[in-house]
């Protein structure tokens, strides 16, 4: 199945170079792949995988290893945000 994978802010560095400007890639994943399995090959440190959304809905950290997607879903990830 095909999903859209989006990374934001400093996480865009983990995307292939040609996808960094658009901050997203289209990718084929196994039907039974969990969110954790989808993001693992990108090598992002767990502490940087802060806000995870599927089609705009927040997925809590404890659900990421068991939540699967369906064809056409959008998986978006943001790092922790700091500011003043």
Describe the structure.
- 6% of the residues lie in helices and 26% in strands.
- Strands 2-1-5-3-4 form a five-stranded mixed beta sheet, with no helix packed on it.
- It has 84 residues and is mostly beta strands.
- The longest helix is centred in the middle third of the chain and has 5 residues.
- The protein contains one helix and five strands, in the order ββαβββ.
Concise summary:
By secondary structure, this protein is mainly β. It has one helix and five strands, in the order E-E-H-E-E-E.
Query: How would you describe the shape?
Result: globular
CATH topology: Ubiquitin-like (UB roll)
Q: Regions with pLDDT < 50 over 5+ consecutive residues? A: none
**Strand order across the biggest sheet?**
2-1-5-3-4
The major β-sheet equals: 5 strands, mixed
What's the number of extended β-strand segments? 5
Element order, helices and strands? EEHEEE
Structural class: mainly beta
pLDDT average, as an integer?
A: 95
C-alpha Rg, in Å?
A: 12 Å
Give the oligomeric state of the chains in this entry, treating copies of one chain as homo and distinct chains as hetero: single chain
Q: CATH homologous superfamily, by name? A: Beta-grasp domain
Cα-to-Cα separation, first versus last residue? 41 Å
| CATH level 1 name | Alpha Beta
Structurally, the number of domains stands at: 1
**CATH-scheme architecture:** Roll
Percent strand: 25-35%
């Amino acid at each position: 199945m095909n999903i859209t994978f989006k990374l934001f802010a400093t996480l865009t560095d983990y995307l292939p170079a040609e996808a960094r400007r658009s901050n997203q890639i289209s990718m084929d994943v196994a039907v039974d792949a969990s969110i954790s399995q989808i993001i693992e090959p990108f090598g992002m440190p767990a502490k940087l995988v802060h806000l995870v959304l599927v089609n705009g809905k927040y997925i809590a950290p404890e659900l990421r290893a068991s939540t699967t997607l369906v064809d056409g879903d959008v998986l978006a990830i943001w790092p922790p945000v700091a500011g003043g």
